[in-house]
Write a structure and sequence with these properties.
Blueprint: H1 3-40, H2 49-72, H3 82-105
Length: 106
């Protein structure tokens, strides 16, 4: 196997790993949004230890990404569209990666 082919294989594996991480983070964002709605409307028991742990996990994983977006966005009252903005950014990065960057290595 040539060095060039090995490099292509490594780069493809790297891009697939990045794509998987972005896909997983997309699902975490969706889960966090659904959890926050359920918590806000008292559908889930907030005194439950598992629910509290899940809420802490979602907050710790999503807040570092959402906080800078919230600072930039205008105040829309009780509506938080920062997860939608992050999902659009993830979609853009994935599309850019697969349609523009990956073909350069193949």
């Amino acid at each position: 196997m040539s060095v060039n082919r090995e490099m292509e294989t490594c780069m493809l594996a790297l891009f697939q790993t990045i794509d998987l991480a972005l896909n997983l983070y997309t699902w975490v964002l969706i889960g966090s949004a659904i959890f926050s709605w359920l918590y806000a409307f008292n559908v889930i028991n907030s005194s439950n230890r598992f629910v509290n742990s899940l809420g802490t996990f979602f907050y710790n994983v999503t807040e570092p990404v959402l906080r800078p977006i919230r600072r930039i966005l205008p105040d829309l009252g009780g509506i938080d569209i920062s997860p939608i903005v992050v999902l659009l950014i993830i979609f853009f990065v994935r599309s850019l990666m697969w349609n523009s960057i990956v073909p350069l290595f193949l």
